[in-house]
Amino acid sequence: MQAPGAPRPQVGRLGDEAAVDRHAASMAEKTEACIRRIGKIDKPKQAKEFFVDVTYKKVGGELLKGSCMFCTSSVTSTGSTRLVDHLISCHLCPQNVRIPFADIRKGTASKRKEKEETATLVAREAEQMCRQVKAQKVKLEQQGIKTSMKSAQCIAADTAIANFFYINGIPFSAADPSVDSYYREMIRAIRAVPDAYSPPTQLTLSGRLLDACHDSMWAQLRER
User: Distance between CA atoms of 192 and 13, rounded to whole angstroms?
Assistant: First the structure.
C-alpha cells in the first residue's frame, strides 16, 4: 500500500516513452530492412519501398497510393515525384533515407536544368540554321532572277544587233570578233557610257562625227 503523501509512479508516462522507443526501434529495423532489400538509394522509384498499404489504380495512367511508414501520411502520385518529396519533408523520416532522396532530387533538378539548357541551345541553333537556309534560298532565288534577267537582256541585245545588221544590209564580216576590231571597240564604248547615253542620230553621223573621223584619219596618214 502506498504511503500517504508519497508521489504516484508515472506509469502512463513511462509506458508512453517505452512505446515510443519500441516504435522507433521497429521503424529503424524496418528502415534497415528496406535499405538492405533495395541495396542503395539512388533511384526515385525506390521511394515506394518506404510506403505501406500501396495500391495501384488505372486512371489515365498508373495511380499509386500509399501511407508513409514513418508518419503514416497518405500520399497519392502518378509517379515517384510526390513520394520522394514527402520523404524529404517528412519530419519522422530518418536521415539515412531523407538525405539520399534529397541528393537524388538535386541531381534530377540539375539534369532537368541541363536538359532544358541543351534543348534551348538546340532550338536556337535550329532557328539560326532555319534563318540561314531561308536567307540562302532567297539569295538563290534572287540570283536566279538576276540570271534570268541577264539571259533575257543578252538575247534582246543580240536580237537588236542582228536586226540592225539585217535591215541595213551590213555585211556579217563587220561583226569581227577580234579584240581590236571596230565592232568590239564599239560594243566596249557603248557598255562604258551611262544609262542616259543617247546614240548619235543620222545628222550627227553625217556631220560632226564624219568630220571628226575624216580629220583623225588624215592626221594618222600625215604621221606616216
Answer: 114
**What are the tens digits of pLDDT across the range 180-208?**
999 999 999 998 999 889 999 999 989 99
CA distance 67 to 70: 9
* 21-23-27 Cα angle (round to 5): 115
Spatial separation of the C-alpha atoms in residues 77 and 118, rounded to whole Å: 28
Q: Whole-angstrom Cα distance, residue 120 to residue 166? A: 68
Assigned C-alpha cell, 198 = 543617247
What are the cell numbers at 213?
A: 573621223
Whole-angstrom distance, CA of residue 37 vs CA of residue 18: 28
Tell me the whole-structure pTM to 2 decimals.
Answer: 0.41
List pLDDT tens digits, range 121-162. Answer: 777 877 887 788 788 777 777 777 667 667 888 888 888 999
DSSP E strands, 11-163: 51-58, 62-68, 74-77
Best CA proximity match to 101, nearest among 120, 80, 117: 80
Q: Are strands 51-58 and 62-68 parallel, antiparallel or unpaired?
A: antiparallel
Q: Are the C-beta atoms of residues 17 and 24 closer than 8 Å to each other?
A: no
